[in-house]
Design goal:
It contains seven helices and 23 strands. It has about 400 residues and is α/β, with parallel strands linked by helices. The protein folds into two domains: about 55 residues; about 300 residues, no CATH class. The two termini are about 55 Å apart. The relative contact order is 0.15.
């Protein structure tokens, strides 16, 4: 629009010059003075127009800077375990865990996993708290996992296969149990043991086998730590992961409920975390003995981290590498069972598989078995490399860790 105004003014000046050439000689001097006055006025107007255009361009650029449309790289991360905050008293209890190991190329790899040793034929139930996190960006845009009432991100998470135990998992003709998704994965992961120890289970819940929801955490995100973006074509919040982690760490430290015997899970809505770029769908970590996890619930169909897919990824990784007391290592590097599949499989974007439950279609990510990291080839159900039987792997560590 500014350029159009400038061109019109330029045309007016040119027209005045043409008309000046047509003035009769006897009035030339008088009209020349008049022309100079008009031209001076028009030049001033043109200068002001150009200045206004520049100002509007700068303003538009400033407004656009709040929209972050950088190249999106869908991924998950793990924040290495950190010491407990100064002054934190020793925990009265810690997470229920068991120890195991496997040998690859004459090297022994010990590991610590959540729950009870499958060979003991016993179950473990881990107290679980879900904390909704409402994010308010500096421009006022709000992203709240409680919005939507019975159809909110929080409500749909609580009724998902991650916590609901009514889904039967039949993996290649083998019934590995009617249970929660992560428990089914772990049972299939150690099927050579579990098939003779059917009471082996790892369930997320509490004293009444239900997940507890703690008070919502509201974060007013400073402009330097959050912005609006459209990495997959839909508007989302993009928030710095280190800022976010500091806030939820503070929440845990001040909570009189959260303790190291259980798992707090922090849920955001239509948000991706960032670290040198977008888009992180979730992570897990530990502050001292307190393990915890975060996942981003995305409500847009087909986008990365849709509904509880990131939760299935992070819980699977927390189960097999809770980061306390140490981080598990393998021939591939760290023992992260979701990362090798996060880029997807044929017909399964981002490695997700669909499950219909309570009139909603959930997307849960496939996870690699211990075999992928060099564990026993015959340890998992059907000797599979992954929970869902992905046939794209033929060697260990094929897609990193």
């Amino acid at each position: 629009m500014c350029c159009g105004v400038f061109l019109v003014l330029l045309w007016v000046v040119s027209s005045e010059n043409v008309r000046a050439k047509e003035v009769k000689p006897k009035r030339f001097e008088e009209n020349q003075k008049l022309m100079k006055t008009r031209n001076a006025s028009l030049c001033q107007l043109m200068a002001l127009t150009l200045l206004a255009c520049c100002c509007l361009s700068v303003l538009a650029a400033a407004q656009d800077s709040s929209v972050n449309d950088e190249h999106a790289v869908p991924r998950f991360v793990v924040i290495p375990p950190k010491p407990a905050a100064p002054g934190t008293p020793p925990p009265s209890g810690t997470l229920q865990e068991w120890n195991g190991s496997f040998t690859y190329n004459n090297h022994n790899y010990p590991y610590v996993m959540v729950g009870a040793d499958p060979s003991t034929n016993s179950g473990a139930e881990i107290t679980t708290w879900v904390v909704p996190v409402k994010l308010i960006l500096s421009n006022g845009d709000t992203f709240d996992p409680l919005s939507g009432g019975p159809f909110s991100a929080l409500a749909l998470t609580l009724t998902s296969p991650m916590f609901d135990s009514t889904t039967t998992y039949n993996q290649g003709g083998v019934d590995v149990g009617t249970t929660q998704y992560d428990d089914a994965f772990q049972r299939a992961n150690f099927w050579s043991i579990v098939q003779n120890n059917p009471n082996s289970h790892l369930l997320l819940g509490g004293p009444t086998a239900r997940v507890s929801v703690l008070p919502e955490l509201t974060l007013n995100v400073p402009s330097g730590y959050g912005s609006i973006g459209t990495p997959f074509g839909h508007q989302v919040a993009e928030v710095d992961i280190n800022y976010f982690d500091a806030q939820i760490s503070s929440y845990m430290a001040s909570s009189k409920t959260i303790n190291p015997t259980g798992l707090p899970i922090f849920i955001t809505y239509n948000t991706y975390l960032t670290e040198g770029g977008c888009c992180i769908g979730g992570y897990h970590s530990a502050n001292g003995a307190q393990t915890y996890s975060n996942f981003e619930y995305i409500g847009y169909t087909g986008d990365f981290s849709q509904d509880v897919s990131a939760l299935s990824h992070e819980i699977g990784e927390w189960t097999d590498d809770p980061l306390y007391p140490n981080q598990n290592n393998t021939p591939c590097g760290i023992l992260e069972v979701g990362d090798p599949l996060e880029t997807g499989q044929p017909g399964h974007p981002y490695g997700t598989w669909t499950y219909q439950l309570h009139n909603f279609t959930y997307h849960l990510q496939d996870l690699v078995n211990l075999r992928y990291f060099g564990g026993p080839a015959d340890g998992s159900v059907n000797d599979w490399w992954t929970f869902q039987g992905y046939t794209g792997f033929t060697t260990i560590c094929q897609n990193g860790s």
